[in-house]
Amino acid sequence: MPGTETQASIEEIQPFEASAEIEGGDVVLIDTREPHEYKEAHLEGGKLVPPGLLAGEIEAAAPDKSARTILYCRSGNRSAIAAAQLQRMGYDNVASMEGGILAWQEQGLPVLSASGMSAEQRERYSRHTLLPEVGVDGQLKLLNAKVLLLGAGGLGAPTALYLAAAGIGTIGLVDDDVVDASNLQRQVIHNTERIGMPKTESARLFIEALNPDVKVVEHRTRLDAGNILAILEDYDLVVDGADNFPTRYLLNDASVRLRKPVVSASILSFDGQISTFVPFEGPCYRCLYPTPPPAEMAPSCSANGVLGVMAGTMGTLQANEVIKLVLGVGDPLVGRLLLYEALGTRFTELKVRRDPDCPICGENAAEVPESEMGRFPDYDLFCAG
Amino acid sequence: MATVRIPPVLRPKTGGQPEIEAAGGDVGEVLRTLTAAHPETAEQLFGAEGELNRYVNVYLNDEDVRVLQGLETAVKDGDTVVILPAMAGG
Question: What are phi and psi of A54, to 5 degrees?
Answer without folding.
Answer: -55, -55
